[in-house]
Amino acid sequence: MRVDVVSIFPEYLAPLELSLIGKARQDGLLELSVHDLRDFTTDRHRTVDDTPYGGGAGMVMKPEPWAQALAAVAADRPGDAAKPVLIVPSPAGERFTQATAHELAGEERLVFACGRYEGIDERVMEWAAGHFTVRPMSLGDYVLNGGEVAVLAMVEAIGRLLPGVVGNPESLVEESHSDGLLEYPVYTKPSSWRDREVPAVLLSGNHGKIAQWRRHEQYRRTAERRPDLLEQFDAAKLPRADRTAFADLGYDIVDGHLMRRADAGGDSA
Ligand code: JA5
Q1: Between the CA atoms of 12, 14, 15 and 16, what dihedral angle is there, to the nearest 10 degrees?
Q2: Whole-number pLDDT of residue 268
Q3: pLDDT averaged over the chain?
């Protein structure tokens, strides 16, 4: 996979050279280039922003440097290649999830456009649709000062899914969100630490019991911290012990869907 990032703060993307993603680059699984948007300006001051039409606070990124930068990046590809995906981090974007990461990990080329100030002139995204599949993307409902931090997160989430990047493929299937539930809690030695014991079942050697305990801990945590995730959960084929676990958490199963009981306690216990 080839990844291009355009930003007025290219040094902000330096962490991509480190650890997992840096290793993917060394192993030739990921080609990454970071471009300075100001290199595509033509004025003496290398201007990238201007005041917003219609008035209001802050500044808006000018269209011309963006079109120059994106055209240069898009042009640099074989004639028969598919349109690259242009990802534009924005709190007004579609939500980036683990499913999005898997989808984008299957692409040959990704381009990330990092906005600053109040964002990029909207006509850039309209024009870019002729050269790219444009995807405005949000990590969540909070505000950042620019797209760079969001790009770090997205490139790491996508990069670690490329075949050969994560050493043990089991750690990909077993982890948070792959089954729509939060992860179970984990423990290591010592078995007793500051008067706190590791749950006895984990020392029992009974692998069936351990698997069931972990699954029930996933249910408990998800009900407590992310009850919204349980609305999508397929409870149709759950074994009896799992149905009982959900009943204890205050959930009924109706047509294979979990339904919070009206009289259930507020603490999901
Ligand atoms: C701000 C100019 O998903 C959270 C996000 C906040 C934010 C993003 S993504 N991009 C920008 C931005 O500000 O480009």
Answers
A1: 110
A2: 47
A3: 93
Categorize the per-residue pLDDT at 167 as very low, low, confident or very high, splitting at 50, 70 and 90: low
Q: Are 109 and 84 in contact (CB under 8 A)?
A: yes
**Burial (CB count within 10 angstroms: exposed 0-12, middle 13-18, buried 19+), residue 251:** buried
Say which amino acid occupies 40: F
Q: Rounded to an integer, what is the distance from CA 32 to the centroid of its chain?
A: 18
Whose CA is closest to atom 8 on ligand 1? 90
3-class SS of residue 69? helix
C-alpha to C-alpha distances, 68 to 24, 34, 194, nearest whole angstrom: 29, 15, 60
Name the closest-CA residue to atom 13, ligand 1.
Answer: 146
Q: Nearest to residue 70, comparing CAs of 112, 101, 30? A: 112
pTM confidence score: 0.94
**Phi, psi torsion values for 101, nearest 5 degrees:** -60, -45
Q: Can you read off the two tokens belonging to residue 170? A: 């089991």
How far does residue 209's CA lie from ligand 1's centre (Å)?
44
- Summarize pLDDT for 66-87 with one digit per residue, the tens: 999 999 999 988 888 999 999 9
Q: Is 136 close to ligand 1, i.e. is its CB under 6 Å away?
A: no
Determine contact, residues 74/129, Cβ cutoff 8 Å: no
